[in-house]
Amino acid sequence: MDDEMLKDFVVEALELASNVEEHLLTLERHPDDLEILNAVFRAFHTIKGGAGFVNLPAMVSACHLTENLFDALRTGKAPVTPLAIEAALQASGFVADQLNELSNGAAPDSLASMPSDLEGILTQAIEGKGSAPVAAAAAPVTPPAPASASTGGAGASVMKDGQLDWESMYQAVTGAPGGTPAGNSPAAAPAAGAGDEPRTAAAAPAQQPNRRASDNAKEESIRIDAGKLDALLEVAGESVQAANQAAVLLEKLQQFKFEGTAAALMSTLAETLGRASRYSSELQRATLSTRMQPVGRLFQKFPRLVRELAKDLGKDVDLVITGAETEVDRVVVDSLYDPLVHMLRNSLDHGIEVDRAAAGKPSKSTISLHAWQAGSSVMIEVFDDGKGMDPEMLRNKALAKGLITEHQALTTDEALQLVFLPGFSTKEVASSVSGRGVGMDVVKTAVEKHRGTIRIDSTIGKGTKFSIRLPIELSIIPTMLVRCAGAPLALPMAVVERVVELPETFDEVGGAPVMRDQGRPLPVHSLAGVLGYEPGNERVGVVMAVPHPYILSVQSVEGTADLVIKPLTAIHTSGITGTARSAEGELVLVVGLSFLLDGCNDTERSAVAQV
After folding, report:
1. Helix 34-53 and helix 57-74: axis angle, to 10°?
2. Which runs of consecutive H residues, i.e. helices, occur in 127-195?
3. Segment (H or E) for 460
4. Is 156 within 8 Å of 168 (Cβ atoms)?
5. DSSP-assigned letters across all residues of 477-524
6. What is the pLDDT of residue 368?
7. What are the pLDDT digits (tens) for 280-301?
8. Which one of 60, 76, 251, 307 is least enclosed by Cβ atoms within 10 Å?
9. pLDDT tens figures, 445-461
């Protein structure tokens, strides 16, 4: 079997399986929705066809039984009961687990066979056993037969809407009508794909229709290695930087007087460089867009997780997802799974009360997962309407563990953020759901790895909100260029409010300089001082738009620029997250977003030093 064919099947089937989970959880609330019943039937039918073609007998068996179940549900032969939905969720989970194993490199013949428990619960659901129907079952409707069911044989097209149709491919290879293996039973299902010789012989009829279909159908998408996209983006970024540097050099050249042919050449050079700059910028934007993915691709994995964990904890929880269409860099999407799982687990285990009635709340609790775009950032919030966090309890716990001193975390907000310190936990014994000896510091580290920030807001008795801010694009960020002690630095524009002129002398509060800005007394921090430079004549202030505003004093402000950031990986420098090249070709140090949001405190280093 072709490895590429298996890889293509796994990618497409995983997407179908994820959609199935979402459909099933919706069906739990709307059991008479015929459209959903049909959609789930089609999904299992399609996965079964592909699984048979690439010889995955256990998956074929599970899909075949589930397909039979949904055929019975949509035609009214069996009722939509909680048992039926549970059976389908278990089947979906089994299929998704096998697909994930394959995605992680497992050999097809190493996969487990279908559990007898799963076969049993599916059979019971098909027979209409279990509790009473969730609601009146949909009226018997016999939907039109799928087009693929009547197009078997080697001459059938295996393409549909520009995509490979696994069901048609299976029919083209095996000649089985409707994609159902001979005997129409789970046991017999894998037989058609067994043996090396039949698969090799089957390749010939499959190739010809595939070729004809490809000639006639316009491909709307292709699958490309992510590493190639990353390399392309880096080249595009460098081309923009080179074009910017060339523009600066040209501007300097134009200060000289040119005559005759030289003047004409300079004019042509200016026009050519302008065109090159526009094209390189367009290339960069186009390349960036190929890496953007909706966060819904990630969010759709969570309803099943929350449902199962809530069931284990004996809690009634509704997960509400909004903003799933918000797009962010694919690297961010991939890296957010573990942090969000950890936050959802904590909300379920720590946040949601066991006895909601005693707290005067509805028995069903709500966890909301919300995403939206804010300027050049993506915001993601996880909110639970649970018991909230007690800042005094958090502070006492951190004191007892030696993570802070008596003079630290004095405000409510500072106490809440203690949750992110390494070694901090509110539970003495780790549970199977959350805790596990791992604190929220792992979440903060994962978010900050991609120049993001995370903070907590909580009200006792009302609930807790985790807020994550991430750059939409990882490699390019809008910055303000400043100079401190002669060194060029870049501040992320996401936290820059405006620039102000600083006075010769400052008022003082507790020995620290303070300046009034729009009626607010704001502390003034020297950027050179907090980064370890020798402070010089700093008469320009940058007002920082952060939860606790302050003013950053710098030597000069030199404009704004979209910079291609190269992260620092080999060394850790306090407050610095990466490097970039200015339009003049000068090496610029990029100040970290988290560092600025935390009031120029290197929380990671200070926390480690205190443990």
Report:
1. 160
2. 166-174
3. none
4. yes
5. EEEEEEEETTEEEEEEGGGEEEEEEPPSS-EEETTEEEEEETTEEEEE
6. 94
7. 888 888 888 888 888 888 888 8
8. 251
9. 888 877 788 889 999 99
Please classify residue 28 by burial: count the beta carbons closer than 10 Å to its beta carbon, then call 0-12 exposed, 13-18 middle and 19+ buried: middle
Alpha-carbon distance of 538 to 552, in angstroms, equals 10
**pLDDT at residue 200 tops 70:** no
Distance, CA of 604 to CA of 426 (rounded, Å): 20
d(CA 21, CA 40): 9
Sign of CA dihedral 47, 50, 56, 60: positive
Greatest mean pLDDT range, 168-172, 208-212, 466-470: 466-470
Q: What is the DSSP letter of 108?
A: G
Residue that wins the pLDDT comparison between 257 and 585: 257
Is residue 412 a contact partner of residue 439, using CB atoms and an 8 Å limit? no
165-185 pLDDT tens trace: 656 665 555 554 444 443 344
Q: What is the CA radius of gyration of the chain?
A: 30
HSE toward the beta carbon, residue 332, CA cutoff 13 A: 28
Structure tokens at 483: 């100079």
Task: Return d(Cα 519, Cα 193) in angstroms, integer.
Answer: 77
Q: What does pLDDT average to over the chain?
A: 79
Which candidate, 275, 273, 281, places its Cα nearest to that of 240? 281
The per-residue pLDDT for 13 is: 87
How crowded is the C-beta side of 405, counted as CA atoms within 13 Å? 4
Q: Is 537 helix (H, G, I), strand (E, B) or coil?
A: coil
Query: For 353, which DSSP code?
Result: -
Q: Has residue 192 got a pLDDT over 50?
A: no
Amino acid identity, position 380: I
Tokens found for residue 335: 């890296």
The answer to whether the beta carbons of residues 84 and 24 sit under 8 Å apart is no
